[in-house]
Structure formats: structure tokens, C-alpha cells
Amino acid sequence: MTDDGMRASDEQLVYARVLAAGMYAGLALLLLTFILYITGAVDSAVPIGDLPAYWSMGVEEYLEAINHAHLHRDHHLTGWWWLTALGFGDYMNFIGIAVLSAVTIVCFFGIVPTLLRKRDFIYAAIALVQALILALAASGFIGVGH
Questions:
Q1: If pLDDT is split at 50, 70 and 90, which confidence band does 18 have?
Q2: Where are the domains positioned within the chain?
Q3: pLDDT tens digits, residue range 24-34?
Q4: Helix 10-39 and helix 89-117, axial crossing angle in degrees, nearest 10
Q5: Does residue 141 carry a pLDDT above 70?
Q6: Which residue has the higher pLDDT, 77 or 7?
Q7: Angle formed by the axes of helices 89-117 and 121-139, to 10°?
Q8: CA-angle at 59, arms to 58 and 64, nearest 5°
Q9: Is 134 in contact with 30 (CB distance < 8 Å)?
């Protein structure tokens, strides 16, 4: 209970538990993949020693350069292309970032059963729609400015 006598709702507690678990999982993955990258336990697409040569480049120029020099691709890919490079230590870091980015979606899906048990169908529908829109936006199927 808080000082004013208010208590968090069941769905707020579920959301908070899922958020905390997702945040810790994402941070643990970031730490683990960074250690694998920095120690050289996993090969990098771009060797750490070569990074200073790319620091002054714009994103398009950088992607073009590393795709030809290190990833051996004819063109750079955008969006979910990083999934094809997860065998490299410098791209493994994206796993933790993806987990952290997806936590809100999981939280919204996580509270739907609680809302349905409470027969709070409007809020359950809103949470479900929010989760679906966020998932659709993250998928790359909808976007702005392409």
C-alpha cells in the first residue's frame, strides 16, 4: 500500500513483473554478448582494430564499406538483416537490444489474461491492439519515411 491507501492493480503488477524480467534478461544478454565480442571469443564481422577507419563515415557509406570488406555481400541490407550476421560478435549485441525493445510488447500481451479474468474486455482489447500494433511496427511491415 502507498501512503494514500492506493494499491497497484493485478495487471499493473503483472506488467511490472514482466517488465523487470525482460529488462534483466536483456541486460544480461547485452553483458554476455559484449563480453564475447570484446574478448574475441567470437569472431567479429568488423575487427575491433579496423573500427577507427569507419568512425568518420556516414551510415550509408559505413554499411557499404563493411558489407564489401567484411560481410562479403554485394549490397547492404536494412531492417532485420542483422539476423543473418548473428554469428559475429559485433552483431550478437543486437540480441539484447531486440529483447529490451520487445519487452513492452510482451508486457501488453502478458496483462491480457489478467484483464480477461477480471472481465475487463475493453482494456483487454486495447492492450491486445497495442501489442499487435507495436509488433507490426517492429516487424518492418509498416513504416514512415522509406
A1: very high
A2: 9-40+90-138, 44-86
A3: 999 999 999 99
A4: 170
A5: yes
A6: 7
A7: 160
A8: 100
A9: no
**What is the phi-psi region of residue 58: left when phi exceeds 0, alpha when psi lies from -120 to 50, beta otherwise?**
beta
C-alpha–C-alpha distance, residues 33 and 95, integer Å = 8
CA distance between the termini of the chain: 48
Give per-residue pLDDT as tens, 65-99. 777 666 666 555 667 777 888 888 888 999 999 99
Residue 101 CB contacts under 8 Å (≥ 6 apart), including other chains:
138
State the pTM of this model. 0.76
**Best CA proximity match to 98, nearest among 17, 30, 8:** 30
pLDDT value for 66: 77
d(CA 61, CA 54): 9
Q: Count Cβ atoms within 10 A of the Cβ of residue 86 and give its class: 0-12 exposed, 13-18 middle, 19 or more buried.
A: middle
Max Cα-Cα span within the chain:
63
CA pair distance 95, 98, nearest whole angstrom: 5
